[in-house]
Write a structure and sequence with these properties.
alpha+beta; Arp2/3 complex 21 kDa subunit ARPC3; Phosphatase 2c, domain 1; 4 domains; 5-stranded antiparallel β-sheet; 15% strand
Length: 675
């Protein structure tokens, strides 16, 4: 009896044997077919040709499928040479030479050169030329020509010329056919290079027409082929270089065999050798260029990865949660690649009731700036352990930078110590070392700057640094930023402090996340242009004190048109508390918000909208939640000739304030003062 394990092993072995047999048959057939093509171009001897593609097929097969594929090479070589009319022992000698050529070539490449079939390194291309095309082909040429000599197929005085023709024919196969097969197998599906299918089609058309022109005329126009070869290499890398070599060979060989083209007028073998050597050298040149491009791309990718990792290590992975404070950051590195170290920020706890927050900007980019950034972050973190005065911590950083004795390394820092006082709010003590002054957005919409500029850190031994204190009450926000926000498009446009204040005033009553997003979107051209410098923006807001409403209505509405009527009916219970004119506006605005949510809110079939109306002593607040993606709270005046587009315009005109908040849902809200 057979065990289940034994049956599985036998079944697996059967499949492997079938696959191996299929691979041997396929390689042998390819070898035989290409050999017959090459032998059809033989002139000096029926067994020696200047064009021998099977060499490339055999080498690629061994490199890709392993040494065990050697029977396919031997079988293909034996069948191809058995019909040439030479004695059997000569056929065996040629077969041994062709088989050893492939095995030795693969061994030299894999064991000596640590070869990679993708040909993405210059060393791999050079190894293919020297070890396989140049060295291993001498085995086949020597054994094959010796076999012909012993069989009296060639004379002694022909030995040298026949050996040269044999060797150069095999060399051409390794230089043209082998790279094409190796690249086709290792680069599929050819999506890494920047070139695209439409461009590839245009390139093929140009290359085919140029090849036909060059090799159909006796004029020396071979130089015309190099622009499309370079184009193919630059845009399609290894696949482009290998494919163009095959295309050029497809025109060069038949025209030269017919004694047409720039190599005409030579003996048959000579002109085929010249054509094949031209194609081989041009192809290897293209492969070397492609390898240089991919090696550089790999270096750039490595540098970019290191830069990203270094940048991440210099910034907090996420903002910590501070009890009683909303925190949000917007950090945007400049558009140039591999620039590390510019702006930085940090937020970390001091003692039980205090937190430290800082935003800084290091002069320069790259490794030196990254070193200063790391020094700044960790010096300030260490200083915060035993020091409570921000000015003293900046002095410690100034001393640390000066101790490095590196010229032109300095930075600006805005540092704040936040003391959490519960219901009393937050006390922020700030010191500024040559940095743009922080701004405070008060709950009533006024904006004020805090502190004095102070001295850049790392410039002089005794910087001027002062501590200043500001009280943050419910609804107030502290905003720290780098000059990349104001100088993003300098010198064409510079954002002034007045511009910042005006933008902040529009953010009154909004959460920290909305303030940060609103400021960057308003000041940075909606991302249409890359800023010239890094940008760091940190917003800290004390949430408004929660006040219980006098009356509240909460109702869920279906995502259908009848929700508009149901929403109006739901707020009617607030009518006695409001002035008739105010209530009329409320009914109209509720209709508009619910109607917008039904149309654009993407409410799932099994879900609903939510309408909330809260009546406070000083105002009425209405919110409608839906599942839409959210939008910018702007309300341009619609055309008077259009029937649609009036909803948000009416909300903007009839409410005292309104906005859009995005969490897991989108909430559109408006407020109307009762006074």
């Amino acid at each position: 009896m057979y065990s289940a394990r034994g049956l599985r092993w036998r079944a697996a072995s059967g499949r492997e044997r079938a696959l191996y047999a299929a691979a041997v048959a396929a390689v042998a057939a390819a070898y035989y077919g290409s050999a017959k093509l090459g032998l059809s171009l033989a002139f000096e001897s029926g067994s020696v040709t200047a064009v021998w593609p099977p060499t490339g097929i055999a080498l690629a097969a061994v490199l890709l499928l392993g040494y065990r594929i050697w029977p396919a090479v031997a079988l293909g070589a034996f069948l191809a040479n058995s019909w040439t009319g030479v004695p059997a022992y000569a056929v065996l000698g040629i077969t041994v030479g062709n088989t050893l050529e492939a095995l030795v070539g693969a061994f030299l490449l894999l064991r000596v050169a640590r070869f990679r079939p993708s040909l993405e390194r210059v060393r791999d291309v050079l190894a293919l030329v020297a070890l396989a095309a140049g060295l291993s082909t001498t085995i086949s040429a020597t054994l094959g020509v010796t076999s012909l000599f012993l069989a009296d197929e060639i004379d002694a005085d022909q030995f040298g010329s026949v050996w040269r023709t044999w060797w150069l024919g095999d060399l051409g196969g390794d230089l043209v056919v082998a790279p094409a097969l190796l690249v086709a197998a290792t680069h599929w599906p050819f999506r890494r290079a920047p070139g695209r299918p439409l461009e590839a089609a245009a390139l093929v058309a140009v290359l085919v027409s140029t090849s036909l022109l060059v090799f159909s005329t006796d004029a020396p126009l071979t130089f015309l082929l190099f622009p499309p070869l370079i184009w193919a290499t630059l845009r399609f890398w290894q696949p482009g270089a290998a494919a163009t070599s095959v295309i050029v060979a497809g025109a060069a060989v038949p025209f030269s065999e017919a004694d047409i083209g720039p190599f005409a007028g030579q003996p048959p073998d000579e002109r085929l050798l010249l054509a094949q050597m031209f194609v081989g050298i041009a192809g290897i040149t293209a492969l070397v260029l492609a390898a240089v491009i991919t090696e550089r791309k790999q270096v750039e990718d490595t540098v970019e990865y290191i830069a990203d990792q270094l940048q991440e290590s210099l910034l907090p992975s996420s903002l910590p949660e501070i009890p009683g404070i909303e925190a949000e950051v917007e950090f945007r590195p400049a558009g140039e690649r591999h620039r590390v170290g510019g702006d930085f920020y940090d937020l970390f706890p001091g003692d039980d009731r205090s937190w430290a927050v800082l935003v800084g900007d290091v002069c320069g980019k790259g490794a030196p700036a990254a070193a200063v950034t790391g020094l700044a972050r960790y010096t300030l973190r260490a200083g915060a352990v035993g020091e409570t005065r921000p000015s003293r911590m900046l002095e410690l950083l100034n001393e640390a930078i000066l101790r490095q004795r590196a010229p032109h390394e300095f930075c600006s820092v805005a540092f704040a110590r936040l003391e959490l006082n519960g219901a009393a709010g937050v006390r922020a003590t700030l010191a500024n070392g040559g940095h743009p002054l922080p701004l405070v957005l008060r709950s009533d919409g006024t904006v004020e700057s805090v502190g004095s500029y102070g001295t850049l850190l790392g410039v002089v031994p005794d910087p001027v640094l002062r501590d200043e204190t500001v009280e943050l009450r419910a609804g107030d926000a502290l905003v720290l930023y780098t000059d990349g926000l104001t100088d993003a498009y300098a010198p064409e446009r510079i954002v002034t402090t007045e511009d910042l204040a005006a933008t902040l005033e529009e953010c009154r009553g909004r959460p920290a996340a909305e303030i940060a997003r609103r400021m960057t979107e308003s000041l940075l051209d909606d991302g249409e242009r890359q800023p010239r410098d890094d940008i760091a923006l940190l917003v800290l807001r004390v949430p408004a004190v929660a006040i219980e409403p006098e009356r509240q209505v909460v109702v869920r509405l279906p995502g259908r048109v009848e929700a508009v009527r149901m929403g109006r009916e739901a707020v009617e219970e607030l009518e006695p508390e409001l002035h008739p004119a105010v209530f009329a506006n409320v009914r109209l605005l509720v209709s508009e918000l619910v109607s917008n949510s039904v149309r654009h809110g993407r409410v799932p079939a099994n879900a609903s909208l939510e309408l909330r109306a809260a009546l406070f002593s000083d105002r009425l607040r209405v919110e409608v939640d839906d599942y839409g993606p959210g939008f910018e709270p702007t309300a341009p005046a619609p055309s008077r000739t259009e029937a649609s587009g009036w909803g948000l315009y009416l909300v903007d005109q009839l409410s005292d304030r309104w906005g859009v908040a995005r969490t897991d849902k989108t909430s559109v809200w408006f407020e109307i003062d009762r006074e």
